[in-house]
Design a protein that fits this description.
globular; 35 strands; ten-stranded mixed sheet; disordered N terminus
């Protein structure tokens, strides 16, 4: 009799209480991705079927946002599950996916084609010359942690917008506007194809990826990204920025055919500028600000001179 009451109590709990880790399916249960994300609790998974979704997604907690790639590792799902951010009326907040909240690497985005974004505003109050930025056309991570893996981040264009006349991280941007922090949330960017993204502004950096907080960029293909500006453009493929006491690892990436005024492939600051034909990057740093990189292939990226390109 006692066992019967225990079993009955457990069944009632399962029936009336939502169990953490629920799978929420789009479009079977929710008409769009944001509706499923809004319904999530910490630890839930939003599983998106193949299709094209014209949305701009905001994530504020640790959830998994994934295509059917999560179930079977079939890369065809990546090509066929598209989130397109090009139809947003508010052009000031136009990243395809925004992550902003108390998240860590348990917040995951995997298995999508992410395209058509034009970035979100970011203010750096301590920077007198370059205070107002547009960043993160495809995926924009601000003061948050995340794991971004197995995505195609393509054809996002970050342009200056009013007073926000600087641009960066057209494909993926992760960072914080606060300097001299003891620690920052950790970001992992791995196994992505980041191609055909463009950052254009009065000052522009990081056509493919920008990382300005603790994290790792590894096993990505970073190609055909471009930065262009009226003053200085740098890091056509990627920009790595060290503003506090933390490490950034850049390893095992393939960086090719990107273009910028300075450092067509990769720019790291403070530190060194890296151009074409660099196959192995070594540890470097300035004071307690350092970055590590190994076995990354960075070659045949272009430095721009006006409208002309030169290797």
């Amino acid at each position: 009799m006692r066992d019967y009451k225990v079993i009955t109590s457990v069944l009632l709990i399962l029936l009336f209480c939502e169990v953490p880790g629920k799978i929420r399916r789009v479009p079977q249960e929710y008409h769009n991705i944001q509706a499923a994300v809004n319904a999530c609790r910490e630890g839930d998974t939003v599983l998106v079927s193949e299709g094209k979704y014209y949305e701009n997604i905001l994530i504020k907690q640790n959830i998994v946002l994934a295509s059917l790639f999560l179930l079977d590792n079939d890369p065809a799902h990546i090509e066929k599950t598209i989130i397109d951010g090009s139809r947003l009326n508010n052009k000031l907040y136009a990243s395809v996916i925004r992550i902003n909240g108390p998240t860590d690497t348990l917040c995951q985005v995997t298995g999508f084609t992410v395209q058509g974004g034009s970035g979100d505003p970011q203010i750096y109050p301590d920077d007198i010359l370059f205070k107002y930025w547009m960043s993160g056309g495809g995926i924009n991570i601000t003061d948050a942690g995340a794991r971004i893996s197995h995505n195609n981040v393509i054809n996002n264009n970050v342009l200056e917008f009013g007073k926000y006349n600087c641009s960066g991280g057209a494909g993926i941007s992760a960072g914080t506007a606060r300097e001299n922090l003891k620690s920052t949330p950790y970001v992992i960017i791995e196994y992505n194809r980041v191609t055909g993204n463009t950052a254009i502004g009065h000052w522009a950096e990081g056509g493919g990826i920008v990382l300005g907080q603790s994290g790792r960029i590894s096993h990505n293909i970073i190609m055909y990204n471009r930065v262009n500006s009226r003053t200085r453009s740098a890091g056509g493929g990627a920009g790595i920025y060290l503003t506090s006491d933390y490490d950034i690892i850049f390893s095992d990436n393939y960086v090719r055919y990107n273009s910028a005024g300075i450092a067509g492939g990769l720019v790291s600051a403070p530190g060194i500028f890296i151009n074409s034909e660099v196959k192995v990057l070594c540890e470097h740093g300035s004071g307690n600000r350092k970055s590590k990189a190994r076995v990354s292939i960075v070659r045949w990226n272009l430095k721009e001179a006006g409208d002309k390109l030169s290797v």
